[in-house]
Write a structure and sequence with these properties.
This protein has 695 residues and is α/β, with parallel strands linked by helices. The chain has 26 helices and 17 strands. The chain folds into three domains: 199 residues, Glycogen Phosphorylase B (Rossmann fold, 3-Layer(aba) Sandwich), CATH 3.40.50; 240 residues, Glycogen Phosphorylase B (Rossmann fold, 3-Layer(aba) Sandwich); 64 residues. Strand 16, helix 21 and strand 17 form a beta-alpha-beta unit. Helix 4 crosses helix 6 and helix 13 crosses helix 15.
């Protein structure tokens, strides 16, 4: 019997625990979260920590504190400096550190949730580096090369944080004794190998606190994948020490592996990264902690379809300018696809994306010639400046628009004056010869000799650039006969960009399909961001996001999540599957795409930190119970249920469409293309009535 699905029962979530730290305060439970990217934007971990800050503070209140390195450039704009209450253990620990000569910055991070934050100036403790490195060698036999600046900084920060947490434990015990509280229970959660040095120091110094270590991607895994190896099918065969040594990262690998084995609870962000860690780091994760998003930031309730239309119009403006002179396609039948992320050509799947676009080009020419696909590749690369042709295109189209607007106003004035005199306007009088000359001059300016450029910038060493090399090999040169057009934009988008004039979030909203056929993607924030904005996406069964969706959704494809198999089949089969998915998407009409976006947006609750934060809580509770056997958490049975939720095949829940017998939304029987919320077809309406009668 089919059953209606509503957002309210989507899954277990953190709502029952969001008491602003009341229960944590009652239990005298403290949580520190340590990462190199706290208030320091370097990569994806910054997004994880920042987006999770809101639910962390809602759950733990001022019993929660973030710790990281002090980077003046970012801290100046992201951190509000203030001191902790002078009667609390945090104030005592910070004061003790300052008395020992450490430079400590504390305050509030200016993000959602406004969490407490402590930043240590690595430079102020640099004079202790040799002593720290000697202690590391004597306690764990890990030596750090003198010239590896990043590892040196990680050692300084790690031992500084270990010293601070030991001081905090002493202050908290004294504070609890003075105020007749129970013993303090402290959890220190470390992210990635740079912060993991602090965990090693805590454990080798025998500081009695619970520790959690999360790896978002293994060091060795990134290096091995970059070497064009059959990574996942040979994971159990790699001589890990030898491979790390060959790549001159053996000391970093040792730090990562030591943190993995010394922590009380080890977590990874996805099942696929857990499998990788089991073979490369030699420990299976205790808990999988998927990455979420603060969905409130992205959700535009009842408006996301309108936001898509408005953002799409801005992309239309770019398209008109970029393809001037070859603008022989209908924008109403043009689909925008994109890939974005770090410029890791093979790891991010840009290689098979371009190859699949070439095949899609052939399929559209043969079977669907009225549809045009504009594919954007957004990877930051070294450039000299904007491409002159790109800038010229936007200049001439702007001139044409302004000229026509002026003529339009003049025509309106002439018509008004003529009608006032009691005469019907005559065509020759309304559009003057002077107006025709102006229009012709603009039209001649729109002529161009060559094809529209493939890239918006002048790329440094473009002959060896992997994207441009693949584009040349596949002959995707933006000719007027091509149904697939390529735009390589080698820098991240922002609202000050003179070509697009919109930021990344707006750009994603305006596109029709995100394509991320990654070979190595421990989680995958790009398809997750698409999902919470209601944009269908392509991912793979080698990305954490793809595996998560396969596990929790009965039929991901029907929700606009296309999962390419890159694990169990060869490269050729993966390319064929991707090109087939994109061609199927191109065959959808406008109404079907609207229905699919409704379904995709429905999944946003699944990726909300209010749901996924429960796994982080579970990891902390497990670590606490390991160190403090007397600690009892009343929510244990609830936590066990958190992993059991599953999204069924689509069943109508207003304003989303009802369940379809086909993976692709059925075409409208009425042929309507209006942007409105409705069921998929008359057939599905009957199915919905039957389902409701049994509810």
């Amino acid at each position: 019997m089919s059953r209606r699905f509503s957002r309210a029962e989507s899954s277990s979530d953190l709502l029952a625990f969001l008491d602003r730290g009341h229960s944590a305060n009652t239990e005298n439970r403290w949580t520190f979260e340590i990462a190199w990217e706290v208030a320091n934007k370097v990569g994806g971990i910054y997004t994880v920590i920042r987006s999770k800050a809101f639910v962390s503070t809602e759950e733990l209140g001022d019993q929660y504190c973030l710790i990281g390195p002090y980077k003046e450039a970012s801290a100046r704009t992201e951190v509000e400096a203030c001191e902790f209450p002078n009667n609390g253990p945090l104030y005592g620990a910070v004061s003790a550190m300052r008395n020992q000569g450490y430079k400590v910055h504390c305050g509030r991070w200016l993000v959602d949730g406004n969490p407490q934050i402590i930043l240590f100036d690595v430079g102020s403790a640099a004079w202790k580096m040799d002593g720290y490195k000697q202690e590391l060698w004597e306690s764990s036999n890990v030596g750090i090369p003198h010239l590896d600046v990043e590892s040196n900084d990680a050692v300084i920060l790690g031992y500084t944080i270990a010293t601070f947490i030991a001081e905090f434990k002493r202050c908290a015990e004294q504070y609890s004794h003075d105020n007749e509280y129970g013993p303090p229970r402290i959890v220190a959660h470390f992210h990635e190998w740079q912060a993991g040095v602090g965990l090693i120091a805590l454990r080798t110094r025998h500081v009695d606190v619970a520790t959690v270590f999360t790896t978002h991607a293994t060091l060795l895994g990134r290096y091995l994948c970059a070497g064009n190896t059959d990574f996942y099918n040979n994971l159990d065969k790699f001589p890990v020490d030898e491979e790390a040594g060959k790549r001159q990262i053996y000391h970093r690998y040792c730090l990562e592996r030591a943190a993995t084995h010394l922590c009380h609870v080890f977590t990874t962000v996805s099942e696929i990264t857990g499998y990788e860690s089991e073979h490369l780091l030699k420990r299976k994760p205790d808990i999988i902690t998927p990455n979420g998003l603060n969905v409130k930031k992205f959700s535009a309730i009842h408006e996301f379809q309108n936001l898509h239309a408005m953002a799409k119009e801005k992309i239309h403006e770019f398209t008109r300018g970029h393809f001037y002179g070859h603008f022989n396609f209908d924008l109403e039948k043009t689909l925008y696809m994109f890939i974005a992320g770090r410029y890791e050509f093979s790891n991010k799947g840009a290689d098979i994306f371009i190859e699949s676009l070439a095949r899609l080009n052939h399929l559209l020419k043969s079977h669907n010639p009225d549809v045009t696909v504009v594919a954007f590749l957004i990877f930051p690369a070294k450039t000299n400046n904007f491409n002159v042709e790109s800038l010229r295109g936007h200049a001439v189209t702007k001139q044409l628009r302004e000229t026509l607007n002026t003529i339009q106003q003049q025509i309106g004035k002439r018509m008004y004056d003529t009608c006032l005199k009691g005469h019907l306007p005559d065509g020759g009088e309304i559009l003057t010869k002077e107006d025709m000359v102006k229009i012709k001059r603009c039209l001649y300016a729109l002529q161009r000799d060559g094809n529209p450029p493939v890239t918006t910038h002048n790329v440094v060493d473009d002959w060896n650039d992997p994207v441009l090399e693949s584009v040349r090999r596949c002959h995707l040169f933006n000719t007027k006969y091509d149904r697939v057009k390529i735009v390589f934009h080698p820098e991240f988008l922002n609202s000050t960009n003179p070509l697009f004039g919109l930021d990344y979030e707006e750009f994603v909203r305006g596109c029709h399909l995100g394509v991320f056929p990654s070979y190595y993607e421990p989680w995958g924030y790009t398809p997750a961001e698409c999902t919470v904005m209601g944009i269908p996406s392509v991912t793979t069964n080698l990305s954490g996001f793809g595996c998560f969706m396969q596990e929790h959704i009965a039929d991901p494809k029907s929700y606009g999540i296309y999962i390419v198999d890159r694990r169990h089949v060869g490269l050729e089969e993966s390319v064929q599957q991707l090109s087939k998915f994109m061609f199927e998407f191109c065959k959808l009409n406008r109404r079907q795409r609207i229905i699919q976006r409704n379904r995709t947006e429905r999944l946003s609750d699944l990726l909300d930190w209010r749901n996924l934060g429960i796994y982080y809580r579970q990891a902390r509770i497990k670590a606490l119970q390991t160190v403090y056997p007397d600690y009892v958490d009343e929510s244990e049975s609830y936590l066990r249920r958190a992993a059991d939720f599953n999204y069924p095949r689509p069943v109508s829940a207003p304003p989303s469409p009802s369940s379809s017998r086909h993976t692709t939304p059925a075409p409208s029987l009425h042929g309507s293309d209006d942007e409105q919320d409705s069921v998929d077809s008359e057939e599905e309406l009957e199915e919905l009535k039957k389902a409701n009668s049994h509810d």
